[in-house]
Amino acid sequence: MPRKFTVRRSPMHGNGVFAAMDLPAGTELIEYQGRLITPKQADQRYPHEMETGHTFLFALNDAWIIDANVGGNDARWINHGCDPNCIPYLHEHPTDHRKDRVVIETLRDVAAGEELCYDYGISFEVRHSPWLKKIWACRCGAHNCMGTMLKPKNHVRRTP
After folding, report:
1. pTM of the model
2. Which of 13, 50, 117, 142 could form a disulfide with 82 if both were Cys (CB 3.0 to 4.6 A apart)?
3. Are strands 79-80 and 115-118 parallel, antiparallel or unpaired?
4. Nearest to residue 84, comparing CAs of 37, 130, 151, 38?
5. Contact 32, 69 (CB under 8 A)
6. How far is residue 96 CA from its own chain's centroid?
7. Could you report the per-residue pLDDT of 33-54, keeping only the tens digit for each?
8. In this predicted model, what pLDDT tens digit does every residue of 133-148 receive, in sequence order?
């Protein structure tokens, strides 16, 4: 079976994943893999991650995070994009959340050679300051690029 994608240097950022053939919408590409850790373990192992602008952590659910720094596969090289051509889907296990899985699929038809990307949806509890937005700068080049990988915070309007 021919490979659906290849990994190589990306004009967006570092390494990237590129379609090796034309891929129709809904094509399952790869499961995001790595060691399962708790949010507390993630905070202990990566205390300065918010300040790096780089992550291989994927929140699986409220109890578990996939750490692709350990045992990760090519899914960790898929870059963020503001106009994504892929989407991560959560496949929940009916009884054991340790067995939940994240699978990356194409969101639309993707042409051979096109870089694969999805919206990381990164959000931090702290204020998204200009400094933090700069650290988490987006370089996707999309016409609707937000300039940052950080998901906008929802502002609740308060009535007097």
Report:
1. 0.88
2. 142
3. parallel
4. 151
5. no
6. 23
7. 999 999 999 999 987 777 777 7
8. 888 899 999 999 999 9
